[in-house]
Amino acid sequence: MQLTNRAKKTDKKPLTLAERTYLPGIAKGMGITLKHFFSKKATIRYPEQKRYLGPIFRGHHILKRDEEGRERCTACGLCAVACPAEAISMVAAEREPGEEKLYREEKYAAAYEVNMLRCIFCGLCEEACPKEAVYLRHDKFVPVFTSRDQVIYGKDQLVEDMNERYERDAWTKEEMQKLWEQQKPVNY
Amino acid sequence: MEGAIIIKGLIILGIFAISLTIAAYETYFERVIAAYIQDRVGPDRAGPFGILQPLADAGKLFFKEDFVPTLADKWLFIFGPSLAMLTAMMTSAVIPFGDSILYEGKEIFVQAIEVNIGILWVFGVVSLGVYGILIGGWASNNKYSLYGAIRAASQNISYELAMGVSIIAIVMMSSSLSLRTIVENQHGGNWNIFYQPLGFLIFLVCSFAECNRTPFDLPESENELVAGYHTEYGSMKLGLYLFSEYVNMFISSAVIATLFLGGFNYLGMDWVSSQLIGQFGETTGHNLATLLGTLVFFGKIFFFIFVFMWVRWTLPRFRYDQLMDLGWKALIPLSIVNLVITAAAELSGQPLIVNWLGLAIFIGLAYAYTFLFTKNKASI
C-alpha cells in the first residue's frame, strides 16, 4: 500500500566502487551543507525582533469594559469555577445608586484577582464568561516577575484602560485565516 | 646585524601572536559557520557581530574553578594541557609564511627557523602532540578519559603512517625536506596538488584525523565517552586543550597549503613583484611583494580552515572499527600506490602526465578487479 509518493525504495544492492570510496557521497553532503550556508536564516533575534503570534494567542488577562466604559464583569464566578488551576478569585458587591456609570449591572466584582503563578493560560475563563468580560489578550505577555508579591494581579492591572482599548484582530476562523494570509512572511 | 635580529624577533613574535589570534577567532568562526550551515546566525551578542565572543569565552574559562581531582596525578594533570599547547605552537616554527624581507641588503626569511629538515620537524612535533592527550587522559584517573586517550593514541599512530607515506611522495618530487625548498619548487603554478591529487586527498584525511576533528573525533566522542580525554578537565586547562585543537587546525591548514597549494606562491607573482620593484625600488618593492605573498598564503590557510569546519558540520563520526578500516585498509595501501606512481613519474621525466596516467591505470585496475571478482556484476 502506498500512502504518499515520497517514500524512497531502499536498495540493498552491494555498493559500487565509487560508492565504496564514499567520495561522491561526501561531495554531495558537503554540497547540501554549503547550500544551507548561503540560504536565508530562520533566526528571529527575539528581544529586538518579535513575530506576530496570531489573533488567538492567549496572553495577559483583561477585564473588558463596554463601549460606555462600564465594567462588564458581574462577579458570577463562572470563570473561577471553570479555571482548572484555581487561579481566579473574586469578591462580589452590590452596585450602589450613583455608580451606574461604573458598572453595567447591579452586581459587580469588588475584587478580582488572578494568581499568575497558578494560571496556565488555557483560556477556559474566557470561554466560560457569559458577559464577555474576561479575555486573554493576543498582543501582550504577562511580564516576568521576580518576587512573590508581584504575582497576584488585581483589578488595577486587569481592568481595561479606556484610552487604550483592547481589540482582537479576528473573531472567526475565516477572519483569522485571512489575517495569516495577509501577513508578510515572517523573517525566515 | 642588530636590525636583522630585531626583525627576525619581530617575525617570530608576529607568527606567535598571529597563530594565537587566529586560533582564538577560529572558535568564533567555528560557531558562526556551524550556525550558518544549520540555518542559524550564531553568536552575535558580544560586540558587533559577536566578534568579542572569544574574549568572553576566555574570560569565562579563566574565572571557573580550577580543580584537580583527588585521585589524579597532579603534575601530569597540569602537564597534559601544557604539552598539548606547546606542541601545537612548536610546529609553526618551520612554516614559511612568506618569501623574505630585504633589510640593509640582507635577506631575512619570513619564517621562524629555516631548517633543512622542515617537514621532518613538523612530522616529529605532530607525533609528539598525542602525548598531551595521552598524559591528560591517563593522569585524570578516570576510565572514560583513559579510553579517550588510548583511542587518540591508536588513531594518531594509524593515520601518521599514511600521512608519512604521502609526504614521502612530496619529498621525492621536490628532493628536499626543507619546507621552503618545497614551496619554491611549486613556483609558477606548479602546485603539488596538480601532480598529486591522490596524495592531497590522503594528506587531507589524515590531517583531519591528526587534529581529532569530526569525522575522526573519537577521542572526545561525547555520546560514548562523556567528553573523552578532557572529561575531568575544567577551567583554563580545558581551555588549553580546546585551544590547542584550534592551533593544530591552523597549523595543519598551513602545512597543507605549503605542501600542496604552493605556499606563498600565486599565479603571476613574478610580474607583480617586478612591477612593485619598478614602482617602489629594490627593497620596498621586494618587501611589498613578500607581504602580498604572505597575504595569499593566509588566504589559502583560511580556505582550509573553512574546509575543516565545513567537513565537521557535514559528516557524522566514524565508528571505531570503520576508523581503523579506513586507516589501515584504505589509506595506507592508497598512499603506497601513490608513492609507486610518483616514483615512476619522477623517473619518466614527465611527472604531470605520468602521475595522472598512473592514477587512471590504478582506477581502471580497481574497476577491473571489482568486475572480475564480485558476484553481482551489475554493481559496478
Main attributes of the structure:
heterodimer, A: 188 residues, alpha+beta, two-stranded antiparallel ribbon, 5 strands, 23% helix, elongated, B: 380 residues, mainly alpha, two-stranded antiparallel sheet
Distance between the termini of chain B: 66 Å
Which stretches of chain B are low in confidence, meaning pLDDT under 50 for 5 or more residues running?
none
Overall pLDDT confidence of chain A: 85
Distance between the termini of chain A: 36 Å
Strand order of the largest sheet of chain A: 2-3-5
Outline of chain B? globular
Helix content of chain A: 10-25%
Radius of gyration of chain A: 27 Å
Structural class of chain A: alpha+beta
Structure, explained:
The complex is a heterodimer of chains A (188) and B (380). Helices cover 23% and strands 13% of the residues of chain A. Chain A has 6 helices and 5 strands, in the order H-H-E-H-E-E-H-E-E-H-H. Chain A has helices spanning 17-20, 23-38, 78-82, 124-128, 155-158, 173-182; strands spanning 61-63, 88-94, 107-115, 134-136, 152-153. A 3-stranded antiparallel sheet of chain A has the order 2-3-5. The mean pLDDT of chain A is 85. Chain B has 380 residues and is mainly α. Helix content of chain B is 71%, strand content 2%. Chain B is built from 14 helices and 2 strands, in the order αααββααααααααααα. In chain B, a hairpin with a 2-residue loop joins strand 1 and strand 2 (106-109). Chain B is globular, with a radius of gyration of 22 Å. The chains are: A alpha+beta (188), B mainly alpha (380). Chain A binds chain B through residues 13-17, 26, 29-30, 32-34, 36-37, 39-43, 45, and chain B through 33, 36-41, 44, 310-311, 313-315, 366-367, 370, 374, 376, 378-380.
